[in-house]
Structures are given as structure tokens and as C-alpha cells.
Amino acid sequence: MKRVVPLEKALDDTIFGSKAVGLGQAIRDGLPVPPGVALSGAIVEAVAAGEQPAINEVAKWVGPLGGPLAVRSSAMDEDGAAASFAGQHLTLLNVPSADELGSALSQIWWSANSDSAITYRKRVGLFTRPSVGVVVQALLDPDTAGVMFTKNPVTGDDERVIEASWGLGESVVAGIVIPDHYRVDRAGQVLERKPGLKRVAVRTVPGGGTVEEKVAPELVERLCLDDDQLLELNRLAGRCEQVYGPGRDVEWAIAGGTLYLLQCRAITQAGR
Amino acid sequence: MRGAPVEVLRRVPLFTDLTKREVQQIARLFKERRFAAGETVVQEGSGGAAFFVMVSGEATVFIRGKKKKVLKADDYFGEIALIDDGPRMATITATSDLVCYGLTYWDFRPVVEANGRIGWKLLQRMAKMLREARED
Predict the structure, then answer these.
(1) Contacts of A55 (CB under 8 A, 6+ apart)
(2) Domains of chain B with bracketed CATH
């Protein structure tokens, strides 16, 4: 089914993938998700194949988002209990506008059909044809971003574990920095604040893509979240658990003083 | 442009016995794929499920770490993966930016399953290739 819908109307994870449906659910439940659209696996493949009607349809929906864009894969069997495709399928940040989207979708389609993805699929016993949906959102320019576990993924303790750094959250997700580490209890009491070593921040560059930018020396070891922001993150953790259930792995960002939810999924057995 | 160049596909041993129309049918299933200079295109021993035809750029083939040959526009690689989606037999690295057209096992298989004539010709060609390999 070659379809594009606003994120909040992505209901079927066999068509749009689990990330799109998860974010759609978040919007329907009032969580702060940046605006975006969900592309079905079939329309992603059609764009990758150069089909003009599909390219036009995607451009029609994505154009109003402006640019730059965050283009994230949303695989059909992604984040399942047995198989996590995190790291296999591409996310492309800072795609300048809808005009460059075709190439981005082609790269994402091939990332699901790459040799490494195929090898991984076989290892986890998946021999079906890969299909990959895509989430396209307006790209934020965050001051601070990172990940949050709504319960401790190592000890299992009932507390929030937050890792944060300057700029885009990719510096935390990709392990480029030693992020700040925080533990907060359910009541919002901060249990631990441990500054990291944040020598670089991932930032967008004009014309597309991202760059690792040197962080000013005085910010390298300065905590990048204050108590009010930790409280707000704790509230977001609670809302995510209400909507999705306990034990969530959340990607978040703070841009222009507003906290956004970028992704929410179950904590995998191995944590991150 | 949509699909792979038919004249290149007709030189691929696996497709030698197919008619031009049959090759055109397969060519339409290819999708463009680009690789940056320095990128590993395929890795020896890893799972593979796509066959590629090069449109521009240059790539180097290594087997067990030894340089074997250089691939250029109109060269192709990975055709056996279309049949068995088995492990890659060589490592190929892009020595410049590459533009390729790729066909996956999953796109190829339904064509063969739906078209007995194509399937039979491929089977005959595979038998010939096997016979030739045993004689070498």
C-alpha cells in the first residue's frame, strides 16, 4: 500500500513500521512529538525504484514540513522481542528539504537490504523480505538531547536513568561522548548527577548532514540539565509509561526551551 | 533512468540465454544504489542478497585480503546471490564514488517463480556453469 499519512494517523505497524505507529500513538496521547509524516514500506520502495507518482506523492506531504528534515527508518519487524534493528537501518539527519528526500529514501531502503542487514536477519532467524517504512519529521536544533530509561536497565531499580549531552542526541546514542549521567526517582528527587566529558556536540550543517563540533572548554564537564529539566523529563517518563507501559527507552531533545519526545521503545534485554 | 542497462545485463553469464524482452523484464526491477569512495560494497563471508551492475566509478575486488581485479562501469558482481542468497565470495571496496544498479533476491525470485521459461533457462545456464567449473 503506497501511502503517506500524518504521524498521528499511522495506525498499522505492518504498513508504516513500529517507530511510526509508536510516534503516532504518542501524538494521539498528547506527548510532545515534533510534527511529521509516516511513509509506508511500499511507497519507500517505489521512491527507491524511481517511480515518479510515488516521488510526487511524498513531496506533496513532506513539502509543508519545510526543512531541514530528520528521516528515520521504521522497519516492520523492528524492535521486536527477538530482533532489534537499531543500528542496521539508517537514520538520516538534516536532509535539507523534500527535494533531497528521494536519495535519502533510497539509502534507507538499501540499508534494510544491505549485506550487513541480511546477515543480521539470518542470524536472528528472519528469512522474509525486508520492508522498511520511514518517519519524516522537521529536524530540531536542540540545545541538549539524550536518552532516558524509565527504569534502571542495569539494576532494574525503579528509577529514571538519564544520559544527556549538548546538541543532537546522536552524540549519546553513537557513544561519541561520555554523557552526563543522572538518576531520578519517581517522585522527581534527583539521586545522582555525574558530569560527563562532552568534548564534541553533533550539529547540523547548512546543505545537509551533521558534523562533530568542538564544545567550548567550559562546557565540556558542565552539567547540561538543571533540576527543572530533570523534573520535566521525569514527567515525560511517567507519561510514556502510562501510554506504552513500563520499562521504556526514550530518546528526547530540548530545543528552544521545549522538551520533545523523539522515540519511545521497550528496553531491550541488553539495555542499549 | 529507471532500471539497469539491458545491454550490460545481457553480458552477465547467468542471463545469456534469456531473450531481450526477458532481460528487459528483469532490468526494470533494479534500483539505483550509490556508494561513497572508501566504502565496503560487499564483504567476503557476509550474507548477500543483491546483484549489482556498475554505472560509474571504480571498485577493487579482494579475495582473502589479496587484490584480484578492478571493476569499472558496466562491470557487475554478486549474481550468484540472486539464486542462493549465500555468503559473499569476495570483498569489494569502492575506490571512487560508485553509482550502481542493484537487484535483490526477493525481487528476482518472484519473476522466476512466475515465469517457467526464465526459470528453465536459468537452470540450464547454472548446469552449464557448474559443468564448466568442474572441468577447470
Answers:
(1) A47, A102
(2) 6-130 (2.60.120.10)
